[in-house]
Structure formats: C-alpha cells, structure tokens
Design the sequence.
C-alpha cells in the first residue's frame, strides 16, 4: 500500500501530461486529415480571354496542382435554342475560357490571396473566383478548434507542472534524509541518487504503459472510430510504435529532470 | 603510536561572527578510547561534525585518518567516511528500509558482495541481540533497539574510527549498558579508535580512556 502511494502522485501527474499531449496530437491529425478532404473539394476558377497551356497555368503559382478547362457546352446548349447557328458559332469564338484549378493542399487565407494576385498578373486572366468567404470561415473554424485544443493542453500542462513542483518538494523532503544518511557513510552521489532515479524511471514506465493501454483501447473503440467516420476522415489515433516511443520519451524526460532537480537541490546536513 | 586525529589551531564556526571552537590543538592516538565532554552548547557536537567533514573549519588544520579536511574534495571525503562509523543520539536510521538493510548500508557502500554482506548483517544482529527483530523497520523498534541497530551499522564495515554523539542520551539503563559494551568491545577487540561525545562518562567502563573537556571554546585534556 505504502509502495503504491509512493508511485501514485507522480504517475497521475505524468498520465495527465501524456493524455493532454496525445489529445493534442489526435486533434492535429484530425485537422490535417480534414484539410486534405477540404483540399480535394476546394478549387479556384480562373476566367481567361484566351486559351492557356496547362504548363503555363502551373507556372503561375506552386500551390496549383492541376488545371482543367471547363467545357462551355452546357451554357451554349441552353442559349442555342433562341439563337441562330451563326451566332452560336460567334458566341463560341468570343466566349472566355474557364479553368478549374485544383490545389496541392488546403490553402491559408494568405495563400488564397497570393494565388489570386498571381493569377490576375497574367494579362489573359480577367477574373478569379476563389470562394474566399466560405474558405475563410472554414479555415478560421479549423484554426479555432486547433487553438482551443492547444490551449487545453497548455492549461493541463501548467496545472500538472505545478502539481509536479509540489510533488518535487515532498520528494526532496523524503529523499533528503536518506541521501544525507548515505552521505555520512561515504556513499558516492550516484549511489545516493540511485533509489530516486529508479523510482522516477519506474513511475515513467508505469505512466507510459497505462497511457499505452488506454490509447490502444481508444484507437480500436467502435464509438471513437464512428465519430471520425461521421466527419469523413480516417486517422491514426495512436501509433503503437511511434506514439508509444514519444510518450515514453516525454515521461522519462520529465521524471529524470525531476529526479535530477532533487539531487541538485540536495543539501547535506551540517 | 600513530595519530588518527591531529588538530592544529582549529577554529570552528557556523557564522563568521560567532566562533564555537577557538584555535584548538589536540591529537588522538590510533586505538584509543576518548570522551569529549562539556556543557550544552559548548561545541561538543560541532567538533564531532568537523571530524567527519560535515562542518568545515574556519581556520587551522584538521587531519583525520591522514586526510587534511580543509579543502578536501568530495570524493576524498567519501573515501574517508567509508572508514568511519558514526552513531547519533537520534539514531539516523533510514525509516523506509528494514533494520537489516540499514545495517548493510556501509557494506554496500564499501562494495561488499551481497552474500558476504548478508552474513555480516546476521552476525551483527546477533552481536547487538536483535536477531529476533530481523526484517522489521526502525519505527517498529524501541529507542534502545534502534540505537543498537545504529551501533551495528557503525560496526558493520570494521571502521578504523567510531564517532558517537551522545549515543546513550535517550536510552534506559539496560540499553545504555549494551551500547557501552559494544563500544568497549570494538575498541579492545578490533583496536578501533572510539570518540564519544557525552555529558556523563559511565562509571562502569573497563577500558582506559582519554578525556577532553570543552569550555569557552577551548579544548583541554582532563588528567
């Protein structure tokens, strides 16, 4: 019981840091996946007075992934019933060319503006429709969501660091006495600190394994998967190798820094 | 006879304004039994602290076991302490360790193999008449028993010097007698130098001893 109590405080503090970190990673991955979805459905329309080569359009801005000329036939068909065939031919000649531009990724509002300016620099392009209002709203919504999650993660981090500092003081008090007594019998610093570092490493391992278990369960939970399906994205919620290494690394680093601070702050009894 | 401690013009202080021991000169022979007495606050414990390097001298020279403690490096001080056994009035046992592990501490620090250390702990527990308490934690024992554990720890690594700070200060007659017997035994059988800070020198002591008295910051030998 006493041994469990020894580990409990730091394990809980570490777990909350690991959870907030992984929550932030999941939110970021979701947003990136959602942006890919949006990028696939988002395009810019450019209206040109003359026909443009595909390579010529791609050279305008590196964000343009592909350009497709839109056929004017459906418009002309609607008008042709009321027009003479000679006029229809004339209309075909004077009608501008419409290009649908697909982009490499979901652009920021700045990139949309820059693309628009670059397109209009071309003397043949007279009009650009970038649907900027809809784009801006969606982009701002995504940014807001990301920032809220980041803020949440930072708040959890700050609160947890405060908890860890309090725990550090308790550890300092608890371990100082033992370290001083060991010092009286000539124990080297590494030997005096060994128990502390072992405790810190064990706590980091316990927290990492617990976090691993919870995230493996969550990443295969039908409820969680359904939530992502509902918004049409599929992401890696928890990578069992990369993410585990990351949480293990973070937990170990925090624990070892904590133990090192105690060792550095240790004052021998005079 | 070899000198285990040599102090020349030794001054000790916790702050620059108040000197506790002032320009003391004394030496202690190897294998001797020494008492240091004095009134409360006279500097007995302060002197003892300086002997194991927990308090640096303000001025003068203090050589313990051939090591000059003024400006001694941490590693050299650790080396010296591995040859000293210390007993405190408040025992200074590690509460979260069993008494066996507490006794084993100097052996582990001195690099003894675990099996040898275990054997030594068993012998010491019998020696201090606590073999029936093996596996218990310090707070499960009485004050007298805890001090016997501290004694066993001080003896564990066959130190050349034992420093005891009022080792029987909190103990009943039976436990006090046991502690004095253990200190006498270490001195007579193992030729360990024993330095005891105390208020009262026991009358039943069978060994020859030297007696230093501290008064008004100076140390003088009582004949």
Sequence:
């Amino acid at each position: 019981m006493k041994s469990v109590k020894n580990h409990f405080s730091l394990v809980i503090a570490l777990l909350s840091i690991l959870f907030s970190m992984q929550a932030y990673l999941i939110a970021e991955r979701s947003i990136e996946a959602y942006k890919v979805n949006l990028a696939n459905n988002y395009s810019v329309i450019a209206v040109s007075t003359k026909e443009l080569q595909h390579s010529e359009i791609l050279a305008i801005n590196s964000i343009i992934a592909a350009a497709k000329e839109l056929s004017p036939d459906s418009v002309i068909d609607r008008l042709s019933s009321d027009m003479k065939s000679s006029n229809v031919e004339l209309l075909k000649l004077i009608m501008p060319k419409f290009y649908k531009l697909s982009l490499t990724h979901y652009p920021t509002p700045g990139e949309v503006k820059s693309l628009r300016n670059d397109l209009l620099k071309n003397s043949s392009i007279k009009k650009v429709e970038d649907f900027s209002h809809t784009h801006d709203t969606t982009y701002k919504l995504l940014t807001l969501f990301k920032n809220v999650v980041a803020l949440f993660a930072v708040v959890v981090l700050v609160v947890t660091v405060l908890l860890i500092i309090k725990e550090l003081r308790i550890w300092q008090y608890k371990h100082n006495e033992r370290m001083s007594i060991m010092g009286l019998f000539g124990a080297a610093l590494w030997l005096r600190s060994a128990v502390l570092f072992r405790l810190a490493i064990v706590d980091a391992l316990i927290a990492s394994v617990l976090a691993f278990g919870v995230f493996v369960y969550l990443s295969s939970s039908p409820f969680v998967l359904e939530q992502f399906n509902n918004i049409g994205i599929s992401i890696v919620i928890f990578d069992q190798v990369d993410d585990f290494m990351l949480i293990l690394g973070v937990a170990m680093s925090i624990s070892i820094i904590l133990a090192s601070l105690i060792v550095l702050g240790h004052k021998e009894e005079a | 006879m070899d000198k285990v401690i040599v102090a020349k013009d030794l001054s000790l202080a916790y702050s620059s304004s108040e000197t506790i021991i002032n320009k003391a000169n004394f030496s202690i022979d190897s294998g001797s039994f020494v008492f240091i007495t004095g009134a409360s606050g006279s500097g007995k414990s302060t002197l003892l602290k300086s002997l194991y390097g927990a308090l640096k001298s303000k001025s003068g020279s203090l050589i313990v076991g051939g090591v000059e403690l003024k400006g001694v490096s941490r590693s050299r001080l650790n080396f010296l302490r591995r040859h000293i056994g210390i007993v405190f009035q408040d025992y200074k046992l590690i509460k979260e360790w069993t008494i066996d592990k507490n006794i084993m501490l100097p052996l582990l620090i001195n690099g003894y193999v675990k099996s040898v250390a275990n054997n030594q702990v068993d012998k010491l527990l019998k020696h201090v008449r606590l073999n029936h308490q093996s596996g218990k934690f310090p707070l499960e024992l009485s004050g007298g028993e805890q001090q016997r554990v501290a004694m066993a720890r001080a003896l564990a690594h066959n130190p050349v010097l034992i420093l005891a700070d009022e080792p029987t200060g909190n103990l009943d007659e039976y436990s006090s007698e046991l502690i004095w017997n253990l200190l006498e035994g270490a001195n007579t059988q193992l030729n360990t130098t024993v330095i005891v800070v105390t208020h009262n020198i026991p009358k039943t002591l069978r060994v020859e001893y030297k007696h230093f008295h501290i008064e008004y910051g100076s140390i003088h030998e009582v004949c």
